[in-house]
Amino acid sequence: MQKILITGAGGQLGSDCLRTFSNAGEVVGLDLPEVDLSDRDACRAALDRIKPGIVVNCAAFTAVDVCETDPSCWKGNRDLPKNLAEWCGANGAFLAHVSTDYVFPGDKPLFQALEESERPNPISEYGRSKLAGEQAVTEATDRFAILRTAWLYGANGNNFLKTMLRLTLQHPGKTFKVVNDQYGSPTWSMTLAKQIRAVVDAEATGIFHASSEGYCTWYDLASSFLDQLNIEHHFVPCTSDEFPTPTKRPQNSILENGHAKALGLNIFKDWKTELDEFVRMHGETVIEEIRAL
Ligand SMILES: NC(=O)C1=CN([C@@H]2O[C@H](COP(=O)(O)OP(=O)(O)OC[C@H]3O[C@@H](n4cnc5c(N)ncnc54)[C@H](OP(=O)(O)O)[C@@H]3O)[C@@H](O)[C@H]2O)C=CC1
Ligand SMILES: Cc1cn([C@H]2C[C@H](O)[C@@H](COP(=O)(O)OP(=O)(O)O[C@H]3O[C@@H](C)C(=O)[C@@H](O)[C@H]3O)O2)c(=O)[nH]c1=O
Question: Briefly, what is this protein's role (predicted)?
Fold first, then answer.
């Protein structure tokens, strides 16, 4: 029976990958604090012990604003995938690695979607460190799939939707500004996990864009989520300039899943259909989780 290692197994995507791969072989999850996979020796020792035939790397440093000032971001986003890819290359294992829309600058004219063939040119430390991770993977092994996803939300862990729900529930009636000039494709981590499984099962290699079909703004996303939950909200659309953050974020990070479509592997539906399904399945639990904070 093949062994499948899921890294970042306690995170948002990793926990959904554990479930999605559960009937694909013997699944092993790894996360901090058990092993720091950005440490080369610790990573090697862990993989030598587990001996996976497939590695699905969901581990990363995902606090985008913190990346601007914390060099640990480069450990999690460049060194960690490099260590995994070197081990996979030397041991013949297949590596599925997850990357981000933030490797692009966001200056492509609206609303043209970004193809896999386009040149990344990140505008944030997070994006630069993730691009360095992609490059390390491609240099260390041939048997890899890099899946670039965007605007993830899911049942486990933290995400933008939970933040906006928390702000609303903790401050009823209060207005919140939400950026309405950045466009992307919100993606449910469970659907991404299924897309990763489809790519791995097909042993398809190369770079894949992997986000929901269609696009919206952060304001559209927050409003749709709260509407679907039937919770009154007072979100006010604003420009990026009116909501300053330490990190500049891409204006257009709409991804086109061209590679997966060409191989007949794309499973994503429209972002709104995906969000509605997420709310049907997990809405009540998410509200309870946020109310308990
Ligand atoms: N979240 C999003 O909106 C998006 C995410 N992505 C990418 O998708 C992937 C999954 O993201 P998501 O599930 O949201 O991320 P999470 O932050 O929820 O999970 C990442 C996991 O990796 C673990 N981890 C971090 N550093 C190490 C390390 N050195 N050794 C071992 N484990 C480590 C974290 O542990 P701990 O929590 O203890 O630090 C955490 O459990 C990442 O590659 C991310 O860059 C791409 C686009 C959008
Ligand atoms: C909390 C909040 C955020 N915003 C804005 C800030 C920003 O432009 C946008 C999203 O903010 P967040 O900080 O939640 O999301 P951010 O960390 O930028 O999300 C990114 O995470 C990484 C890991 C990725 O790879 C990306 O695909 C993307 O999902 O919403 C508001 O406008 N109002 C608010 O009240």
Answer: Catalyzes the reduction of dTDP-6-deoxy-L-lyxo-4-hexulose to yield dTDP-L-rhamnose.
pLDDT digits (tens, 9 = 90+) for 225-241: 999 999 999 999 999 99
Which value does ipTM take for this structure?
0.99
CA-CA distance, 186 to 114, in Å (whole number)? 15
Distance CA 102, CA 70 (A): 17
* Residue 30 three-state SS: strand
Q: How many domains does the chain have?
A: 1
Residues facing 255 on adjacent strands: 114
Contact criterion met (CB below 8 Å) for 63 and 107 = no
What is the span of the domain harbouring residue 92? Answer: 3-158+186-214+253-269
pTM of the predicted protein model: 0.99
Q: Would you call the peptide bond into 33 cis, given omega within 30 degrees of 0 as the criterion?
A: yes
- Give the CATH number, domain containing residue 191: 3.40.50.720
Kind of pairing between the strands at 152-153 and 216-217 = unpaired
Residue 174, domain member (yes or no): no
Is residue 257 situated within a structural domain?
Answer: yes
Cα of 157 vs centre of ligand 2, distance in Å, is: 15
Q: Which ligand is nearest to the CA of 209?
A: 1
Question: What DSSP designation does 252 have?
Answer: B
Determine the Cα–Cα distance for residues 236 and 167; give it in Å rounded to an integer.
13
From 12, 62, 64, 163, mutation site for ligand 2 pocket: most ligand atoms within 8 A of C-beta: 64
